Structures are given as structure tokens and as C-alpha cells.
């Protein structure tokens, strides 16, 4: 029975991988952009999209090798990188086309709306991974999920309004930094919940592998996510569009792929530990 179930699961994974391949062909064939040799921002977009796709395939295939209680976490990890890959195929073309048209980076070249659409989907999924890891070991609460989810939405909305102030008449220049501060406070609250709040207390009784992965994910959320406000600050000056996009792309690759790898590590270690006890 278990063998049949595993076979069906593998067939589903192969089907999803084939679907991703078809989507890849579609985006590549539809692209009419050319990457300039001196366009380092464009290079970072292409590298990020490739890393996201590779990570998605890896998480989908490895989902078959973990215990059932970890499959949802692995699915979410694949969703995070998969959604990011899909949006990056459009962000990279947007950047390359505008770069080719202008010969240089302009403020309007940054794919702001596409990036925040991506974040609005992937960031709440990422913070929900902490809840899912705790749910896998039976110590999660719904209240924790909603607190993390709500804080991530506040962080993203405040960040978008701060960055899009030039296009939104209701947002004056004087509101940029207060909105930035609101986003920072929401991020700090998420950090508190993970390092000192309910999540920290709940994971204390988990297996060694799960605790290691949880702490590594918390470190990524603290240190890795710090790249985003740094990119925002550096992007405020003249010629800051390049700095902003390179830092955002680096942060996305590190935070989305490494985050998922920690989920995979926890799932693999816990599955092996459970198998050795049988």
C-alpha cells in the first residue's frame, strides 16, 4: 500500500515538473529581450530566475522522500520559489527591455509592481513555514499563524506605499520614511515572535534537526531580510535603482532558496530519525 502511494506521489511530482518545463518553454519563447554585457542588474535577474526554477524542481522531487507530516511544508517551499520564478521571468524581461531602450537604468525601469505582487504572495507563505514546522510536531496554534500573517501583510503594504509614493498622489514625500518605519516595526515584531515569542517556546521540545532548521530559518529571517531595508535606503539616492534591484535580487535568492532548504533539512532529518526508531 505504501509503495503504491509513493509511486502515485512520484508520478504527481514528475507531472508538476513537466508542467514547469512547459511553462519555461513558454516564457523563453515569448521573451524578446536582449541581455547587455554591461548590465549587471540584468545578470542578477537572470541568475535569480534560474535559481528559483532549480529550487522549485528540487523541492517538488524531494517532497516524495519525507514523512507525510512534512509534505505540506515542502509544498509551500516549492510554491515560494515557483511563484518567485514565474514573476522573475517577467521582471527580468521588463528590466532588460527598458535597459535596452534607454541604455541606462532609470527610476521607471525598476519592476516595482511585479516585485511587490511576488512578495505579497511569497512572504506570507514564508512566515507560515514557521507555523507549519510547529504543526508538523503538533505544537502550533492558529493564533500564531494569523499574527505572523498579519504582520507580514502590514510590512509589505507599508513598504509598497513608501516605494510607490511618486506614483500615488495621496502619499507625499514626507510620508516615505514614516511608512518605512511602519514596515520595519512589523518586521521587528515577526522577529520577536520567532526568537522570543510563542514560536520559540513551542519548538523547544522538537527534535534536534527541527530545532536546527528552525533557528537557521529564524536567522535568515533576521539577517537575510535585513538586505531589503538596506536596498530601500541605498535606492533613495541618485542612481540608486541599480543598487536597489541587485540587493533585492540577492535577498530573494538567499531568503527563498535557503529558507526552503532549511525546511527540507528539517523534514529529512526528522524522517530519518523516525525511520531509525521503527
Briefly summarize what is shown.
The chain has 278 residues and is mostly helical. The protein has helices at 2-30, 40-62, 68-102, 112-136, 142-163, 176-195, 198-203, 208-223, 227-234, 240-277.
Describe the structure.
- This protein has 278 residues and is an all-alpha fold.
- It has a single domain, classed as Rhodopsin 7-helix transmembrane proteins (Rhopdopsin 7-helix transmembrane proteins, Up-down Bundle), CATH 1.20.1070.10.
- Helices cover 80% and strands 0% of the residues.
- It contains 10 helices and no strands.
- The longest helix is centred in the last third of the chain and has 38 residues.
- The protein is globular.
- The chain starts with a helix and ends with a helix.
- The model has no long low-confidence stretch (mean pLDDT 85).
- Belongs to the archaeal/bacterial/fungal opsin family.
Layout of helices and strands, plus pairs?
Layout: H1 2-30, H2 40-62, H3 68-102, H4 112-136, H5 142-163, H6 176-195, H7 198-203, H8 208-223, H9 227-234, H10 240-277
Helix pairs in contact: 1-2, 2-3, 2-10, 3-4, 3-10, 4-5, 4-10, 5-6, 8-10, 9-10
Amino acid at each position: 500500500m505504501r509503495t503504491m502511494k509513493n509511486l502515485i506521489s512520484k508520478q504527481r511530482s514528475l507531472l508538476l515538473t513537466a508542467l514547469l518545463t512547459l511553462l519555461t518553454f513558454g516564457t523563453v519563447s515569448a521573451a524578446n529581450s536582449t541581455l547587455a554585457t554591461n548590465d549587471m542588474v540584468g545578470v542578477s535577474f537572470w541568475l535569480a530566475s534560474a535559481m528559483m526554477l532549480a529550487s522549485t524542481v528540487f523541492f517538488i522531487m524531494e517532497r516524495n522522500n519525507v514523512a507525510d507530516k512534512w509534505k505540506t511544508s515542502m509544498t509551500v517551499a516549492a510554491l515560494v520559489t515557483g511563484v518567485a520564478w514565474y514573476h522573475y521571468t517577467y521582471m527580468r524581461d521588463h528590466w532588460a527591455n527598458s535597459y535596452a531602450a534607454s541604455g541606462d537604468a532609470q527610476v521607471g525601469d525598476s519592476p516595482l509592481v511585479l516585485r511587490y505582487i511576488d512578495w505579497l504572495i511569497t512572504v506570507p507563505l514564508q512566515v507560515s513555514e514557521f507555523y507549519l514546522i510547529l504543526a508538523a510536531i503538533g505544537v502550533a496554534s492558529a493564533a500564531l499563524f494569523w499574527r505572523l500573517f498579519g504582520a507580514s501583510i502590514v510590512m509589505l503594504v507599508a513598504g509598497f506605499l513608501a516605494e510607490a509614493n511618486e506614483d500615488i498622489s495621496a502619499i507625499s514625500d514626507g510620508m516615505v520614511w514614516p511608512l518605512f518605519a511602519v514596515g520595519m516595526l512589523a518586521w521587528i515584531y515577526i522577529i520577536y515572535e520567532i526568537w522570543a515569542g510563542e514560536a520559540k517556546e513551542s519548538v523547544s521540545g522538537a527534535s534536534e534537526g527541527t530545532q536546527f532548521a528552525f533557528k537557521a530559518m529564524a536567522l535568515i529571517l533576521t539577517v537575510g531580510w535585513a538586505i531589503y531595508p538596506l536596498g530601500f535606503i541605498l535606492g533613495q539616492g541618485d542612481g540608486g535603482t541599480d543598487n536597489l534591484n541587485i540587493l533585492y535580487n540577492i535577498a530573494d535568492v538567499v531568503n527563498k532558496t535557503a529558507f526552503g532548504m532549511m525546511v527540507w533539512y528539517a523534514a529529512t532529518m526528522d524522517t530519518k530519525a523516525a525511520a531509525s526508531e521503527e
